[in-house]
Write a structure and sequence with these properties.
- By secondary structure, this protein is mostly beta strands.
- The protein folds into 2 domains: 202 residues, Jelly Rolls; 75 residues, Immunoglobulin-like (Sandwich), CATH 2.60.40.3080.
- The chain contains 1 helix and 23 strands.
- The strands form 5 sheets. Strands 3, 4, 5, 6, 7, 8, 11, 12, 13, 14, 15 and 16 form a 12-stranded antiparallel β-sheet that branches. Strands 20-19-22-23 form a 4-stranded antiparallel β-sheet, with no helix packed on it. The protein has a 3-stranded antiparallel β-sheet with strand order 17-18-21, with no helix packed on it.
- The longest helix is centred in the N-terminal third of the chain and has 7 residues.
């Protein structure tokens, strides 16, 4: 399913993934709000690009003014969104917040009358293979989202099967776990399996080599209160500092050795820079404090 959708997306003009907070919308010629930067697909028995039956601007949001709402609809149909961007990072994963009304779908293919649905978020990291004139997927991750009545965080981890450097990343959000050709239907038609999703973040490359044998992980990002730093190297020592975007130190330099947790609860919401250094190199990580 996801491979088919990747083939429909041209990388021409892609930059970084955009509008991950679902704040930017435009009004089409029919007067309906449409989501900027994302491509909409409707799937039934065939793929129809550009349809938007169940893709809605939702004011029931986690942050900002809007969230994205997707749903199953009209028996076997559902809407989904996909976006791609150029990247050379081996992205760690995807985080965000969601609510989900999981419908009981009618299915004869599963051997029973009803099955409980789940939403799905999928990421694929790819590189262009000039020899085969095709796109190779070198990393993929998927998370199924169960029913939740309140906004709940989710985490998707990208697992890599190749050490190659990627050239693109694709992100797909879908209100059902079932694929085309295996679609249970909404009982009685209409709309069901409502997914509301908001405040998505793409985690940068998790592992950075500061010296031979050294590895660093900084997560989660965005962070609410506790930032986790895992550090291992031959010396097992590095210096950590946090500054605001103007370069002012907000957390004094601290020596880290192994696993460390930083309490950021005293910081105001906004963007900050985590600086990790040793005698070999210095690394900067932009984080978002919620």
């Amino acid at each position: 399913m996801f491979t088919c959708l990747l083939a429909m997306c041209s990388l021409q003009g892609f930059s970084q993934l955009m509008n991950l907070g679902f704040e930017q919308w435009y009004v089409d010629t029919t007067g309906n709000p449409k989501l900027n930067n994302w491509t909409h697909y409707t799937l039934t028995n065939i793929v129809t690009q550009g349809h938007q039956s169940g893709t809605l601007q939702d004011t029931d949001r986690y942050s900002g003014n809007y969230a994205l709402r997707l749903s199953r609809w009209s028996g076997f149909g559902y809407d989904q969104v996909i976006q791609g961007a150029a990247t050379t990072q081996r992205t760690q994963g995807i985080t965000g917040y969601y609510k989900y009304e999981d419908a009981s779908l009618y299915s004869t293919a599963t051997g029973g009358p009803f099955v409980i649905d789940s939403a799905s978020v999928t990421a694929a990291v790819t590189e262009w293979n000039a020899a085969s004139d095709s796109r190779d997927t070198i990393g993929v991750g998927n998370v199924l989202l169960a029913g939740m009545t309140n906004f709940t965080p989710f985490n998707l981890t990208v697992n890599y099967t190749s050490g190659a450097t990627p050239d693109s990343i694709f992100l797909r959000i879908c209100p059902t776990k079932y694929t085309r050709g295996n679609l249970p239907q909404c009982p009685g038609g209409g709309y069901c399996s409502y997914l509301t999703i908001d405040a998505i973040s793409v985690l940068p490359e998790a592992i950075a080599t500061l010296e031979m044998g050294g590895k660093l992980t900084v997560c989660p990002n965005p962070v609410s209160n506790i930032l986790r730093i895992a550090w291992s190297s031959k010396s097992n020592v590095a210096l950590l500092t946090v500054t605001d975007m103007a370069g002012r130190i907000v957390i004094n330099p601290t020596t880290i050795n192994g696993n460390t947790e930083l309490d950021l609860s005293a910081l105001s919401a906004g963007a900050y820079v985590v600086i990790v250094s040793n005698d070999k190199e210095i690394q900067h990580y932009k984080i978002i404090k919620q």
